[in-house]
Design a protein that fits this description.
The structure holds two protein chains of two kinds. Chain A is an alpha/beta fold. Chain A has 16 helices and eleven strands. The chains are: A alpha/beta, B alpha+beta.
């Protein structure tokens, strides 16, 4: 079956549009916490498909965007370590740190390779025994298990030149931080689809129990997103606050236990700095004692240098959902995909990039 | 022992002559080239000449559906064709990294000869340089081309007018995805192949149907989206296209889904987009469909006087959105 059938069926989309329009009476603000949702909402024009009573906001769902400047500077400093080869996902290449991007570092002679997965970085380590391969670990619960698995694999194969600089974070604490801050009054939460395949949808039960907000785990096709929105609108009208799994073809209640076990085997949970949100306790993953030999921070304690926040950048507010890209004075003027000031415009999952591309 | 290109092959001496005789002249043999003079002479082929040049640095050198040589010929043939010129003569310059297997060079050159024969063009001059290991990435090729434009043919990106039809000659994204998947060693099992092809035959069929063809471009780097923006910008006109009409092969569609890429921004090396008068559109599409490389030709949109300089896409859901140029390379999703 072609991608364009079933979950992109224009007929189903139309039906869901009508359903939402029919049941939505009171205004509801829905926030999503996933860069791919940000992208999907913009790409399919979901905002134009829902009635004016439904407002869709983007939260801190882009793993690159929530990485703070100091961490990026640390990565840049790692790229200057003699014999180091930095292995990174493509998006990180263009995010400005205090002193340029990794692309600049590469142009100045640093070895920086783009990879699609940490297993590619492991391949690099095997092929370049004389170099130190440092993988820049960003991503949430979707990505962290594969990074953990690659570390376990490295240990098994006795690979001695593979390191990970972990900037991994987990999603629920960011949601709590947004809700506790109370800057935006949310009526519903779209839970991240890929993260939920790992965590299981029960991981969002706290949204019902503690915050009394309805939530729906959503997939990424237009039908998926609209189904979840319809569910949230319906609950909002009825005053209920349940967690609903609207992505049953990928997400179960318990999630992927093996993935979580691998994560727990390699990572400790601790405080982590989030761009726009400050330091959030129990939100970051660091490599534990047992696997310390693979921890780039322990092996290469470099000096990231002075942290210089990009001038005039409002990515922090965009990440918290208190500013839409259009409201940022730099958007489309001095900050564009060709000349990005902050990560929200650079990353393919960034809110500003999505608005720019599809808005 | 495997025969390798040595620095000596670029020195201009005996080794160079051997290389030229055994590899280049052997494959590119034609009466204009063979005297191997400093320049080739030919009578002026017509009133209006078209002249173009391009360099090719693709990695890997060989990929499903083609190689750097085929690209080098087709790319230049196509650039001439996009101005409505019939391509005639090409030059071919090679910068070779020391250590390249001669067999690889022969394979590339043979492929160029094949593509040139298919396009009906002759390679009439060339150059070879060899650089030390590390100074070039295996092989770089530059081709320049001369063609002739018939009277009455005026094809330019500046000519699009409100009311004109937008035609696409076939599926998009094939070349871009193939190269990406080859480079990163992804093993997609869907038989992805580059679409590299010479389009002068297709263009000749179109011009035979109507000399009123306004503009043509081949959507190479930056993809269809970037090319349409270039035309819209040059013509100060708006372009509106229908998502549902744009042909994408299933393999490309799924590969893009997996990697989070948009086919609109992927390179094509055997496709063209044409702006033609509305009343000629159906006839031109029909003529295209009867050619080898235009079998999937389709009307995808129209030129409008609204939103001049902008390209708007109407999605399958009836939502309109702006299609901008590619800022820089696309990267797949992380999470």
């Amino acid at each position: 079956m072609r991608v364009t059938e079933s979950f992109r069926s224009p007929e189903l989309v139309e039906k869901l549009k009508e359903r939402i329009a029919a049941i939505s009476r009171t205004p509801i603000r829905i926030m999503e916490f996933c860069g791919t949702h940000t992208h999907a909402v913009c790409r399919y024009g979901i905002r134009e498909m829902v009635p004016r009573t439904v407002e869709m906001l983007s939260g801190p769902g882009c793993p690159v965007c929530v990485t703070d400047v100091r961490s990026l500077d640390y990565a840049m400093a790692l790229s200057m370590v003699p014999g180091a080869i930095i292995a990174t996902f493509g998006d990180l290449l263009k995010i400005p740190g205090s002193r340029g991007t990794l692309q600049h570092a590469r142009a100045r002679g640093a070895r920086v390779e783009m990879v699609y997965s940490p297993l590619d970085a492991l391949k690099l380590a095997r092929r370049n025994p004389g170099n130190s391969i440092i993988f820049l670990g960003i991503g949430f619960e979707t990505t962290a298990p594969t990074v953990a698995a690659s570390i376990v694999q490295a240990e098994k194969e006795e690979i001695k030149n593979f390191y990970v600089y972990s900037m991994h974070k987990i999603t629920p604490p960011a949601m709590r931080a947004i809700l506790d801050a109370g800057e935006v009054a949310l009526g519903g939460i779209l839970c991240p689809g890929h993260v939920s395949t790992v965590t299981g949808w029960k991981a969002w039960q706290f949204l019902s129990d503690v915050y009394h907000i309805p939530s729906a785990v959503a997939g990424f096709e237009p039908v998926d997103v609209l189904l979840a929105v319809a569910e949230l609108v319906e609950q909002h009208e009825r005053g209920t606050a349940r967690v609903v799994n609207a992505y049953p073809r990928s997400v179960t209640a318990e999630g992927n236990r093996a993935a979580r076990e691998t994560m727990a085997r390699v990572f400790d949970v601790g405080p982590a700095p989030w761009r726009g949100l400050g330091t959030i306790p129990d939100s970051g993953l660091s490599i534990n004692e047992e696997y310390a030999a693979f921890d780039a921070e322990k092996r290469f304690p470099v000096d990231p240098g002075e942290t210089i926040e990009p001038k005039g950048c409002h990515c922090g507010e965009v990440i918290r959902g208190v500013m839409t890209p259009g409201a940022c004075p730099l958007f489309r003027k001095s900050c564009t995909p060709m000349n990005p000031i902050g990560p929200c415009m650079v990353s393919s999952e960034g809110t500003c990039a999505a608005y720019y591309l599809y808005g | 022992m495997e025969e390798l290109i040595l620095l000596g092959h670029g020195s201009g001496g005996g080794l160079s002559h051997e290389l030229i005789e055994n590899v280049f002249a052997a494959s590119f043999a034609n009466p204009l080239l063979l005297p191997l003079e400093d320049a080739s002479l030919f009578p002026s082929p017509g009133e209006r000449l078209a002249f173009t040049t391009d360099s090719y640095v693709v990695q890997p050198l060989f990929f499903p559906g083609g190689d750097i040589g085929r690209l080098a010929i087709c790319g230049t043939v196509n650039d001439l064709s996009m101005r409505g010129a019939a391509p005639l003569y090409l030059s071919a310059s090679f910068i070779i990294e020391e250590g390249l297997p001669v067999a690889d060079l022969k394979r590339v050159v043979f492929s160029m000869a094949e593509a040139a024969a298919e396009a009906g063009v002759q390679i009439v001059c060339g150059d070879t340089k060899v650089v030390e290991r590390g100074a070039a990435d295996r092989l770089f090729i530059t081709t320049s081309g001369i063609g002739v434009v018939r009277d009455g043919v005026d094809v330019s990106a500046q000519n699009a007018r409100a009311g004109d039809a937008v035609i696409l000659s076939g599926t998009i994204g094939d070349h871009g995805i193939t190269i990406l998947s080859q480079r990163e060693g992804m093993q997609f099992r869907s038989g992805l192949e580059s679409d590299a092809a010479p389009l002068n035959g297709l263009v000749a069929a179109m011009l035979a149907e109507s000399t009123g063809v306004r503009a043509m471009r081949d959507p190479t780097r930056g993809g269809l989206a970037t090319t349409l923006n270039e035309i819209a910008g040059s013509s100060h006109a708006g372009i509106e296209i229908e998502e549902g009409k744009i042909p994408v092969s299933e393999g490309v569609e799924w590969a893009c889904e997996m990697l989070g890429l948009d086919p609109l921004y992927l390179a094509n090396e055997g496709k063209l987009v044409a702006i033609v008068p509305a009343e000629d559109a159906d006839r031109i599409v029909k003529a295209m469909r009867s050619t080898r490389y235009g079998a999937n030709a389709v009307l995808i949109g129209r030129v409008t006087d609204e939103h001049p300089g902008r390209v708007i896409l109407r999605t399958r859901f009836g939502i309109k959105r702006i299609i901008d140029v590619l800022a820089s390379d696309q990267f797949p999703r992380i999470c």
